[in-house]
Design goal:
By secondary structure, the protein is an all-alpha fold. Helices cover about 65% and strands about 0% of the residues. Helix 2 packs antiparallel against helix 6, helix 6 crosses helix 7 and helix 9 packs antiparallel against helix 10. The longest helix is centred in the middle third of the chain and has 28 residues. The protein is globular and about 65 Å long. It comes from Streptomyces galbus. This is Rhomboid family intramembrane serine protease. Pfam families: Rhomboid_2.
Length: about 220
């Protein structure tokens, strides 16, 4: 009976946590469905399918709004479970503390601005002859820009002095790739992190600063 009670309480805690971050887990559910769909495609069809939903220069010039939305609904590589962990650790934490609307706004700003600036940098590289013209139609999908923005904005949720260590780690993770042969996605991740850090006005007064030594409470359902 005791074991049954513990299992019931654990399941109730999981349900409560999921309900506390509806946007995060709805998005994660969409990614699960699209990832399963990818595993049923042939490699040739998959590449063509994803390229039409990619935020590359060609698609951005033709259907910017459509591809900006569609590109955030697919995972390049087809591995869903690591994102389930990352969404639970970062996205759910941010949504619970900022509220769904502000969490979503940070995601949108990071995804859109990082995409446009990184693709602008790629266009400049192509025009300067640094990158090949084939990069106009490169594959660029995924949710990592929004994730980088959320990882960065969570800096303001941590108390000092631990905040400074977290901030240093964020900057190291997203700056280090720029020091040796950076790609346009490296630029995008760096920009997304800066966007997240720039979202302090959205965070101020809406988040409870947390001590990393303390366990975050799970809201009761």
């Amino acid at each position: 009976m005791k074991r049954h009670t513990r299992v019931h309480r654990a399941l109730a805690a999981v349900r409560s946590y999921v309900r506390s971050a509806p946007g995060t887990y709805a998005w994660l559910g969409v990614l699960f469905v699209t990832t399963v769909a990818l595993h049923h495609m042939s490699p040739e069809f998959e590449q063509d399918f994803l390229r039409q939903r990619s935020t590359n220069l060609h698609e951005l010039s033709q259907n910017p709004v459509r591809v900006l939305v569609a590109s955030a609904m697919w995972i390049d590589g087809g591995r869903w479970l690591p994102y389930a962990v990352l969404y639970t650790v970062f996205h759910a934490s941010a949504e619970r503390r900022l509220g769904t609307a502000r969490w979503l706004l940070v995601c949108v700003l990071a995804h859109v601005l990082a995409t446009l600036i990184s693709e602008g940098a790629l266009l400049w590289a192509i025009e300067q002859g640094v990158a090949p013209h084939s990069e106009y139609n490169t594959l660029d999908i995924g949710v990592s820009y929004a994730l980088a923005g959320i990882v960065a904005v969570l800096t303001y949720e941590i108390r000092t002095p631990w905040r400074y260590g977290y901030l240093a780690a964020v900057l190291l993770v997203y700056t280090l790739p720029l020091t040796s042969g950076p790609t346009f996605t490296d630029v995008g991740h760096f920009v997304a992190a800066l966007v997240g850090l720039g979202c302090l006005p959205l965070v101020r007064g809406r988040t409870q600063v947390r001590n990393p030594k303390e366990t975050a409470p799970v809201p009761r359902g």
